[in-house]
Design brief:
heterodimer; A: 375 residues; alpha/beta; Oxidized Rhodanese, domain 1; 2 domains; 6-stranded mixed beta sheet; 11 helices; 20 strands; 25% strand; B: 75 residues; alpha+beta; Translation Initiation Factor IF3; 4-stranded mixed beta sheet; 4 strands; Mito_Persulfide_Diox (chain A); sulfur dioxygenase activity (chain A); POD-like_MBL-fold (chain A)
């Protein structure tokens, strides 16, 4: 039997459409436990490829015979080998093209909403890494917020839509993934904005993103308003778009809140985080739809694949917004934190422009989950 | 350390470094040492995990000029 090749885009459709999939992950147990392809209805078997060199007979009873088995490894090579062995054994087997590396890089643009006067708001979901980027389109102009490093995806999307990218924002200096923001701006002539309080060490030119800054997209009245909301970093800034959407960056997620420790200043920033979540955000309209810069678990995805929920719902349901005792809050976000994201110190240096790794090195740095949250 | 055999797996991508390491291991005797040279970063976690699953010991390991050296003693 022939072995099929799946692309990351095909796997993404299975996740978003809530389909079943059986994944045989042939990476190390540690790698699998740390980070895998998450789907609502996915089943998994993890057997390292090097335990299958003498044959796959022993694992055949654990594999389904009535549906395709998708074999996944780090880069592709081992999954091709194992998929061919399974196919020779009579199973319907496929492998993931480019392995977890391509899964980590795949971006799925999903429309969140139509805005006034024909405008549109898109969320770019990076399923493998849990990163969320945004594009606001109005008339012939676009603004991008928290772009990941795959600049072509955003630039080509804007071309397809026939819009010019005018403004590119980063809500903060990211520590879990490499920003594409200033590169998109350089390529398109757009203005690149970064909060100055996060930019103390950056070595490139940028425009200051400060509280109250307003830009208008297109000639229609679609406004992007900046709201200073420190805590994850000291510069972290949120956006209110079209008076309907609240882009929270890494401050507030659907089922968790931001962590204050990724720049090494947890104790200094925990008070800011408290102030943002318990005072600043509470002054906003509860019907604003929260659009965060990350998701951590697949349950945070809506049925259409978007990650979005009214602020009012989060104020009721999100544990991190319901810790009345200040001391308890402080200990929740500074003690017993999950491990920090892979290579977060180097990633911050890349985002400051201090180091310029090649594409393969950037891929290596971004391996693994984002881990920006505290639950 | 007495090296019984050397395997040059430089430039090879996963899974070939492990496939070749396994074959080379089959040709040496218990307690003898195989030296493996690889450039694929995936080997950094995969070779120790494979050795552990087969009961072999990594008795030394180093990285020089982008080449990773493993010294694996057969069980």
């Amino acid at each position: 039997m022939t072995v099929n090749k799946w692309t990351a885009a095909q796997v993404a459709r299975k996740v978003i459409e809530n389909k079943e999939l059986f994944i045989l992950d042939v990476r190390n147990k540690n790698d699998f436990d740390d980070w895998k392809i998450e789907g609502h209805q996915f089943e998994y078997l993890n057997i390292p490829y090097f335990e299958l060199l003498d044959g796959v007979e022993e694992i055949l009873p654990k594999l389904p015979t009535d549906k395709e088995v998708l074999v996944v490894c780090a880069k592709e090579g081992s999954s091709v080998m194992v998929a061919e062995m399974l196919s020779d054994a009579g199973l319907d087997a496929a492998y993931l093209e480019g392995g977890m590396k391509s899964w980590s890089m795949y971006l799925e643009p999903i429309k969140v909403a139509d805005l006034a006067d024909g405008g549109e708001l898109y969320q770019f979901v990076r399923l493998g890494k849990g990163c969320l980027s945004y594009m606001v389109i109005s008339e012939n102009e676009a603004a991008i917020i928290d772009a990941v490093r795959f600049t072509d995806v955003f630039i080509n999307f804007a071309k397809e839509k026939g819009v010019e990218i005018k403004h590119v924002f980063d809500t903060h200096l990211h520590a879990d993934h490499i920003s594409g923001g200033r590169h998109i701006a350089a390529e398109t002539g757009a203005t690149y904005y970064l909060p100055p309080k996060d930019a103390g060490e950056v070595v490139y030119e940028y425009t200051a993103l400060t509280d109250g800054l307003t830009v208008q997209i297109g000639s229609a009245k679609i406004e992007v308003n900046a709201l200073y909301s420190p805590g994850h970093t000291i510069g972290s800034t949120s956006f209110v778009i079209d008076n309907k959407f609240l882009l929270t960056g890494d401050i507030l997620f659907i089922d968790s809140i931001g962590r204050p420790d990724l720049a090494g200043l947890a104790d200094d920033w925990v008070g800011d985080l408290r102030e943002t979540l318990y005072t600043r955000y509470r002054k906003l309209a509860e019907d604003l739809i929260v659009l965060p810069a990350h998701f951590m678990i697949i349950d945070e995805l809506n049925e259409d694949g978007t990650v979005a929920k009214p602020l009012g719902d989060l104020l009721k349901e999100n544990h991190g917004l319901n810790i009345e005792d200040e001391q308890e809050f402080r200990s929740t976000v500074t003690d017993n934190l999950p491990p920090q994201p892979n290579a977060h110190v180097q990633i911050r240096q890349v985002n400051m422009g201090k180091i310029t790794p090649n594409n393969d090195e950037q891929t290596e740095m971004e391996i693994g989950p984002n881990r920006c949250a505290v639950r | 350390m007495n090296i019984t055999k050397t395997l040059d797996a430089k430039g090879l991508a996963c899974p070939m470094p492990i496939v070749k390491t396994k074959k080379a291991m089959d040709t040496i005797h218990s307690n003898e040492v195989l030296e493996v040279m690889v450039t694929d970063k995936g080997a950094l976690s995969d070779i120790p995990a494979w050795a552990k699953s087969g009961g072999h010991s990594i008795i030394d390991q180093k990285e020089e000029d982008g080449v990773i050296y493993f010294y694996i003693q057969k069980n």
